[in-house]
Amino acid sequence: MGERVSGSRRVVLATSNGTGMGHLARQAAVALALRGPEARAEAAAEEQVEPIVFSLSQAVHVVGRHGLRAEYCPSHHRNWMPHLSWHGYLAHRVSALLGETRAGVFVFDGVAPYLGLLRARAVHPDVAFVWVRRGMWRPGANRRALAAAPFFDLVIEPGDLAQSADRGATSRLTDAVRVPPITVRQEGSALPRAEAAAALGLDPDRPTALVTLGAGSINDAVTPALAAIRTFLTRPEWQVAVTRAPLARTGLPPAEAARVHELVDVYPLAQYLSAFDAAVSAAGYNAVHELLPAGLPTLLVPNAATATDDQLARSLALAEAGLSLHAREDAPDDVAGACERLLDPAVRRDLTAACEALPVPTGAAATADLLLGLADFPGHRPSPAERLRTVDLETRAAVMRAIGPSATSAVRRALGRLPSPGPTRPLAVRPILTDQLDPEVLRGDHPVEHLLPGSSPAYRTRRLAIAHEAYHWPENWGRDVTAGSPPARQEETPR
After folding, report:
1. What's the pTM value of the predicted model, to 2 decimals?
2. Which of 136, 152, 461, 486 could form a disulfide with 131 if both were Cys (CB 3.0 to 4.6 A apart)?
3. What is the pLDDT of residues 324-342, one digit of tens each?
């Protein structure tokens, strides 16, 4: 697999771990566009494009439903190795994958490129590195991440329906190529209502509300999700579908509890939106650009806990434009009142009419065209700004290695920053080695080394070497383990 397959070239589409499905869904949309008929027409007939997903998200298994090959890499949030070591580990993982696939383009979708990613960029000047950098950042948030821009050969900003309300750090920049909104929703891909409802276990003849907010218990009246659910259940003809399981039904009469349906592991949800008559959703990028272009009357309840995404500004702007309703997350009574409005057929008709005037999102195809245009990439030449940033990053990394994890955490606390997470030395553990994307294994508490399906024996050997460097892996434990029952994880030895 390390040799380039005749008649094929590869693009690696990477994502951060994120807090939802947004990064992963956008990269899946771009992958489908790269494989689509328009992209094939752009590429030479004898040189088709194979997109490969590389993700830090434990939900990466869902892209397999699109027939995509994917590889999982654990994020530093898993705390399976010292924080500084993780960046070196990520650099080795990216370099190994680029060597195996011989990809000519590496695309990162995330708000903050990792140090390990920038290190890999430095040793692969022949590969075009692209940053898909979503806008609508909270004012003042994440400014330090912008220093990574010179490392990339192209910065792409997906369009946002609320772009006019963007007041974040990227809103005044001119370094990005802006494309229309990117969404996995494809024109003509939605199922007919009866088919979509049957697939989800819903009654197609009853009006149906989709509630996709945080989890909770039905007898806990303080969450916005439950305020929405209970409001819809006051109308006996309505049924409700929720996307966050488990959701307890205790405290409800049996007849009402039977009208709440849990949608477990449904992806892509955009394919089934015809089954719904109204939606109550967070105001994240992915949800907004699936629900509104589909013409689904929607109440947006922005998530106030996001670190970078300015969901409040997005929700307010779209409500002011008449494209959705808005309610505050910390005001369940407001959510209930907005749901009462959503139950009004006239309100739903007005929202649908406004959304039907929106253009079809074509950002995935536009992004695919930009990536295909990098086929003759001449090579990366570091700018003075990139060289200075590289010296700064490597100097700080060298200092942290010299003083050790404990002292580094103390310095961070003295500067008012959170200490680096994770262990202070490599764990004494043998990771699971597998080429299967089993979500239960990925979400488990045992380290996982996932291999790109169909990869070469040489790649497997390289990955074992990387794993041995990342973990304290005694030789008498052997060099391999399948994705069956993992050996017991050993506690970190105190320093």
Report:
1. 0.88
2. 152
3. 999 999 999 999 999 999 9
